[in-house]
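Collaboration report, partner site 2.

Our partner group contributed sequences for two proteins of shared interest, and the home lab folded both. The records are reproduced in the order in which they were received, starting with the first partner submission.
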Amino acid sequence: MFALHTYLKSKKKQTYVVNTYRSKMLESGFFENQVWGALHKAWKGYVIAKNKDEYEKMERYACIIQECQYDLRLTVSSFHEIGKSLAFYSLRAVQIAENNNHARYR
């Protein structure tokens, strides 16, 4: 019962945000403000991982940052220190787009 109440409350907030044009739905299925929040948290996590020399976490956060920037139509960052260049992401973006198109036509 509590889960249903929480879900309905969340859904009401989402429709209010969309109907008042405070945020828009992106192609990824997330709202613009949600992706901005994820981008901010990913940058924070990347900086922390870089300070602690945690290479695997740096890679994970770099991927998240690049995906968020792509969704928001921002300039996608390169991470040369860990080998995540724009060429790497552009190939990945093409694969993601192909998977999304393929999933739509099933």
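Second partner submission, folded after the first:
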Amino acid sequence: MESNNLTEILIVDDDRKIVNLVGLYLKHEGFNVLVAYDGEEALNLAIQRQPALVILDLMLPKINGIEVCQILRTKTRTPIIMLTARTTEEDKIQGLDIGADDYVTKPFSPRN
């Protein structure tokens, strides 16, 4: 069964509370939510399903978010938003340099 990937958003985070919170807001806005809890699962889903957007944590099991972003950039043009607890200016610059389209730090307010 092929999905409408224009409405699918992949959330990648090993923190299930973050995944559930972000997913709840996205579903409320009419998006279909795909979920991955590690980098390996994220790559498989992103390549297979070609979602409209990937929301990606940096600190992930199996394959970290930096590597996931770098690999995805070689295979797809899907927009990537880093959502991470790493807050230094260097972290933000690195995330954007490897191909992220935006960088949001935790904690965040889903209402903004």
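Feedback sent to the partner group on the second submission included the following. The mean pLDDT is 89. The CA atoms of residues 28 and 63 lie 30 Å apart.
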